[in-house]
Amino acid sequence: MDTLSLLFYAFAFVLVYAGFRVITAKSPVTAALHLVLAFFSASCVWMLLQAEFLSITLVLVYVGAVMVLFLFVVMMLDINIDSLRQGFWKHFPVAGLIGAVIAVQMAFVLTRGFDLPEARPMAPEIAELPNTKALGILMYTEYVFLVQVAAVILLVAMIAAIALTLRKRKDSRYQDPSEQVRVKKADRLRVVKVAPQVEAPAQPENNPNGGQA
Predict the structure, then answer these.
(1) I need a labelling partner for 172 at 20 to 30 A (CA). Which of 29, 53, 56, 76 fits?
(2) Each residue's pLDDT tens digit, 111-159
(3) Angle at Cα 122 formed by Cα 117 and Cα 127, nearest 5°?
(4) In this structure, are residues 179 and 187 in contact, taking their beta carbons and an 8 Å threshold?
(5) Are residues 72 and 133 in the same domain?
(6) pTM to 2 decimals?
(7) Is 64 within the bounds of a domain?
């Protein structure tokens, strides 16, 4: 067994173990950390397959950004684990049956192999380029529409994650822009006629002779 095969089996074993711990860990933070380990192991496997761009992207995007955001959301939402685990054993037979069917299907596909059609030959000028540059040319020329759709989906996911963390607190003051836009003049200023509380002093009477009394 050569060194590449040994490294592949080592990273594959770590990947399977980390994936198993993701679904069996009691704490969501522990599950997220094991998911980071699974992503890192998958990145190493891709590096062994000479897909360096996908390997670096997996580390930078998922491990460095998505999982950090996920950990912030988990810690800020304060999820009650006990309520999530209620009825676990009640639904375990159905979940186990579905998992067994998926495992049998994957084993059937992997044992028979993939009957793929012949790949379309790449242009000579692209085939001679490095892996990262050739992938970038294909993404932003032939598959640019799909890249834009994926970017919109990620933007929606980011907005949804931020919206989940916005919780109203009684001890905090905030402004509602929608109420500020709908405000009217009558809401800002109201003129109230107030009756005088102190009577005005009596005016002195004039004397007929030209003087004051």
Answers:
(1) 29
(2) 776 565 665 665 666 666 777 777 788 888 888 899 899 999 989 988 8
(3) 130
(4) no
(5) no
(6) 0.52
(7) yes
